[in-house]
Design brief:
Blueprint lengths: L3 H7 L6 E6 L6 H9 L6 E6 L4 H4 L9 E5 L17 E2 L4 H7 L1 E6 L5 H13 L5 E5 L3 H4 L3 H12 L7 E7 L17 H8 L2 E6 L1 H13 L19 E9 L5 E10 L6 E4 L1 H5 L5 H11 L14 H9 L3 H7 L26
Parallel strand pairs: 1-7, 1-8, 2-3, 2-6, 3-5, 6-7
Antiparallel strand pairs: 4-5, 8-9, 9-10, 10-11
Helix pairs in contact: 5-7
């Protein structure tokens, strides 16, 4: 049976809204771009670039789909004169770049107002005469401006989805949103809200971190983690573990944990079993035996727990009570006490049986 991640990648499991949640410890960009590479050839790809320059993102996208770029990266707060007003600007790309990447249009937006960005993106989608796949390289940049407006943006796009169109979005779970600075107990966390409306939620985990945690669990040790922004083994680009929650149209929810690694000769993403990426677990019994042989628990005690040779022989020659019972024939021996009263008369003698 094919892994769930492989079915989602290939489109055998349809999903209108795929949300990839990552952290600084493990990026989801590799998986997000791989999902985008499976876009059907007749789809228009709409790239919403909020934290990655379009020129850097375009070479990572495979396929010759027609593309529309929504550039929220070049001038996010309207500092330059070119887009200081509220009107979205169309920025024609160079002829060579447009021809090689098949870019039909580039629109420069400011993130000062998510509502204006919502209208501009909705207009771009409405002008398409074919199915589309819209890719957000980071929803966190929009959430940092306004959480309600970002949810309205997602709602507006989902209202324009056709049967085969879909949204692929990355969300950095450890990046604070606008509501984080003014917490309100009556409001749900933005991350939980996005996970609720997404039809497929993929949570990225670092494979080396999982391996170390599993080793501690099997040893029975809970290691105290020191605070660090990024461990030495963090953000591995060649492999990761994915915890998937997929909501089918029937209402059933499928949960599965898969992993992937990049094939060394070709660089293709290959979906594998989790333990193929995490690695073989160490032989815990062997490690425990080595520890027991090297560490003597009675070495530093104030009293002696060791037996002499004579004491050991006496212990071995002692016959324990349960061994005597096992040697008996099974007969029951009863010795009456002085207070016992025996009556030889039959208590049922008056019955006519």
């Amino acid at each position: 049976m094919a892994p769930l991640l492989e079915k989602i990648l290939s489109g055998r499991e349809s999903s209108p809204f795929i949300l990839v949640k990552d952290t600084l410890e493990q990026s989801g960009q590799v998986l997000g771009l791989e999902l985008l590479s499976y876009t059907p050839s007749d789809h228009t790809i709409i790239l919403v670039c909020a934290e990655t320059a379009p020129d850097r993102l375009l070479p990572m996208i495979r396929g010759q789909n027609k593309k529309v770029i929504i550039d929220c990266y070049s001038n996010p707060f309207g500092w330059t004169q070119a887009s200081s007003d509220s009107t979205p600007k169309t920025s024609p790309s160079s002829a060579s770049t447009s021809a090689s990447a098949n870019i039909s249009n580039t629109i420069v937006l400011s993130l000062k107002s998510v509502r204006r960005a919502t209208k501009a993106i909705s207009d771009v989608i409405s002008s398409q005469h074919s199915s589309f796949t819209i890719y957000f390289d980071s929803l966190s940049q929009f959430l940092a401006i306004s959480v309600p407006d970002t949810f309205n943006l997602i709602r507006s796009i989902t209202g324009l989805l056709t049967d085969s169109s879909r949204i692929i979005a990355l969300h950095h779970e450890d990046v604070p949103d606008a509501d984080s600075f003014h917490p309100d107990a009556s409001k749900p966390y933005a991350s939980n809200g996005l996970a609720h409306i997404a039809t497929t939620l993929i949570t990225m985990k670092n494979s080396e971190t999982i391996r170390l945690e599993q080793e501690d669990v099997r040893r029975g040790v809970v290691a105290v983690k020191e605070f660090c922004y990024l461990p030495v083994h963090g953000n591995a680009w060649d492999s990761a573990v994915c915890e998937i929650e997929h909501k089918r149209k029937s209402g059933k929810v499928a949960r599965e944990t898969n992993a992937y690694h990049l094939d060394s000769p070709t660089g293709d993403l290959v979906v594998v079993n989790v333990w193929d990426v995490v690695g073989d677990m160490p032989d815990i019994e062997k490690l425990d035996l080595e520890e027991s042989q090297t560490a003597d628990p009675a070495a530093n005690l104030s009293f002696n727990l060791n037996l002499t040779e004579e004491q050991r022989r006496a212990k071995n020659d002692t016959v324990l009570p349960y061994l005597k019972t096992q040697e008996s024939t099974g007969a029951i021996y009863y010795e009456p006490d002085a207070a016992d009263d025996f009556d030889d008369d039959d208590p049922d003698d008056d019955l006519t049986i």
